[in-house]
Write a structure and sequence with these properties.
binds molybdenum atom; about 270 residues; 2 domains; 12 strands; binds ligand MTE; elongated
Length: about 270
């Protein structure tokens, strides 16, 4: 640019042109945003989420389950790093009266064939007589908090082995006999107001426990006494407190937060 070209007039012109251009771009941008938002909100719902969002959730789910491995363990921590009073979060299905002394776990071996479903009734004493395992891990809630917590109970896989659960044949589960395994386990509170579904591989993961102790003491009422699920490979939503019924099925069990727009898998 020469000295003559760089007149004040030219300078003003350039600024004006650039200002107008950026205003137009801005209007276009806002317009696209409004249009996109309106389009999104006109889309049908799919299990509590707008369809395009559900599509993204499902794609994530495929990716996460592809990475799932039994031998991939969540990191564990020393007892000293466990918080003394873990946060109490979520009390759906926990408000009805419950007598822990007479409580029993109902187990439906095959929820898909109601006629042949033999329901097993298991007492807390029977659960306590199985091998006890501890797990100290970083508990993560989808709300964004996490804390290192310490739990104890029976490994779900030991429980399933003992009662021969999760198979159509009624034999003890065998990872190599995929066709004999149910695809899902479902759990719900005694009043049925909170319920989750978990893919069988994750519930059989070596760190998943049916939990009756927290920090070396009996599980507090508001944290799921007498028995809750602790499943370190999943977000908090799946750690159902106060289990009433456990069942096995090839159909995806109903899931409280899935119905409200969260992803089903909820894996870490
Ligand atoms: N019965 C029942 N279990 C539940 C919930 C609930 O509302 N009701 N909330 C879940 C959620 S979202 C989280 S983060 C954990 C919290 O467990 P805590 O209260 O022991 O921290 O419990 C899960 N299990
Ligand atoms: Mo949560």
């Amino acid at each position: 640019m020469t000295e003559e070209n760089f007149s004040e007039e030219n300078f003003k012109k350039t600024v004006r042109r650039k200002t107008i251009r950026s205003i137009l771009w801005f209007i276009l941008f806002i317009g696209a945003l409004v249009f996109g938002w309106k389009w999104l909100n006109r889309q049908p719902m799919d299990a509590g989420a707008l369809k395009p969002l559900r599509t993204v959730l499902s794609a994530n789910e495929k990716l996460f389950s592809a990475f799932y491995s039994d031998s991939r363990l969540e990191p564990e921590y020393p007892i000293s790093s466990a918080v003394r009073y873990p946060k109490v979060n979520g009390n759906y299905g926990m408000k009805s009266a419950l007598d822990t002394a007479t409580w029993k776990l109902l187990v439906v071996r095959n929820a898909d064939v109601p006629a042949t479903a033999d329901t097993l009734v298991v007492s807390m004493d029977e659960i306590r007589s199985l091998p006890r395992t501890e797990v100290i891990f970083n508990f993560k809630c989808i709300e964004g908090w996490s804390q290192i917590t310490r739990w104890a109970g029976v490994k779900f896989s030991d429980f399933a082995e003992h009662y021969r659960l999760g198979t159509k044949s009624g034999n003890a589960p065998d990872k190599n006999k995929k066709d004999d395994l149910f695809k899902y386990a479902g759990l719900r509170t005694p009043d049925g107001l909170y319920y989750v579904g978990v893919d069988l591989a994750s519930i059989m993961h070596p760190q998943t426990i049916l939990c009756y102790e927290m920090n070396g003491k009996p599980l507090p009422m508001n944290q799921g006494a007498p028995l809750r699920l602790i499943i370190p490979v999943k977000y908090g939503v799946k750690h159902l407190k106060r289990i009433g019924t456990l069942f096995f099925s090839d159909a995806q069990p109903p899931d409280f937060w899935y119905e409200r727009g969260y992803d089903y898998y909820a894996g870490l």
